[in-house]
């Protein structure tokens, strides 16, 4: 292949053009984005919390994004073809209940969960939740969370990206991959972290302290 | 970002250079490679077949690679932290037994299976197999099969790639990704097919009749 020659020419062209902010960030060691694996979990509305547990959620520990926390309470998910026990409940309460699964989980339950951004649950499948003492049936709310990166406006400026842009991220695993369509989410309260599910982590053989690097733009915001 | 300008320049440079065989193939519609999902399965040596089933394997149906077939026999896998039932046995017998899992499966069993090419099992973890009537303990042989593409010498020429080269493959799923380090395996008896596991398929949201496209070279042979 003429791959090497092409790469040389591209490099020379780009050297003359100057790097884009994203490329500059990617070339520097501080371009690494910490990757966090999201296990299956649920967010609950006040009404479902009351039906399942009678009283308010019990705070156990803070999560990486400020204000979000793991609760003592756990739920069972019941789908047409399977059950998953001991699923984490995250607080605080949200306006609508939402269940975030991997595609592997969704297949166990027999639910065709679409890949969606958190909060975008219109028209998604439902599921039954039980707690041992209560039951809640969700009409909708089961999603596979679209992979995304939380970042502050400062980080966004540093990477040369903007809110809702979709970027390509190189994953430094034992079998490397580039994930496309990774949604950038910018908020002053966000701490830099890329969130993926266990299917995605397994597909690139990610270990502990895994990192991603933005290497391109899939789609502008 | 200056992404668009860079892409324009790259395109002009490459137009003047002429395309490489892989790029030419990728640009044409016949560059699509059928993707097949490999579920967990085992290959057995004659000795383990005898211990587990007493007699020879029973042919059920041909698989996509000529000479390989699914058997009627099934096994249970037993690891330190879990059990997986009803695992497919593929024939014919091989010189060494080998168990191919996804990383999700390996975690259920509690086995640290490395990503390896089929047949490369030296130093890998073992597992216990049972059949209902027999038991076989493997000293080694549990792997996560490295993603790979089977192709004939004709296909290799068409794609401009060679045996044991590692290539980058764009996966056309609902959340697209580029898998790097995909091993090209060329043999006159191979039928064109890319083999990945369920973690990998889920990570890019692959549907039925999924296709991959070679978009670059990760590493020369």
From TrEMBL, chains A, B:
Its EC number is 2.3.1.222. Keywords: Acyltransferase, Bacterial microcompartment, Metal-binding, Transferase, Zinc. Involved in 1,2-propanediol (1,2-PD) degradation by catalyzing the conversion of propanoyl-CoA to propanoyl-phosphate. It comes from Desulfoluna butyratoxydans. It catalyses: propanoyl-CoA + phosphate = propanoyl phosphate + CoA. Its cofactor is Zn(2+). This is Phosphate propanoyltransferase. The keyword Lipid metabolism does not apply.
């Amino acid at each position: 292949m003429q791959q090497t020659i092409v790469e040389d020419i591209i490099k020379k062209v780009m050297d003359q053009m100057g790097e884009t902010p994203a490329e500059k960030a990617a070339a520097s060691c501080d371009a690494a984005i910490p990757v966090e694996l999201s296990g299956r979990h649920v967010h609950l509305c006040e009404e479902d919390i009351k039906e399942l547990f009678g009283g308010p959620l019990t705070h156990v520990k803070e999560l990486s994004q400020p204000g979000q926390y793991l609760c003592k309470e756990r739920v069972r998910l019941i789908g047409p073809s399977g059950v998953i026990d001991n699923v984490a409940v995250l607080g605080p309460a949200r306006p609508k209940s939402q269940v975030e699964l991997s595609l592997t989980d969704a297949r166990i339950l027999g639910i065709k969960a679409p890949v969606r951004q958190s909060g975008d649950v219109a028209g998604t499948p439902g599921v039954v939740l039980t707690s041992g003492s209560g039951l809640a049936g969700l009409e909708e709310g089961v999603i596979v969370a679209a992979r995304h990166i939380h970042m502050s406006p400062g980080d966004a400026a540093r990477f040369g990206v903007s809110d809702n842009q979709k970027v390509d991220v190189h994953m430094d695993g034992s079998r490397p991959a580039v994930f496309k369509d990774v949604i950038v989410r910018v908020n002053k309260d966000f701490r830099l972290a890329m969130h993926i599910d266990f299917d995605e982590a397994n597909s690139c053989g990610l270990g502990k302290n895994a990192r991603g690097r933005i290497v391109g733009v899939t789609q502008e915001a």
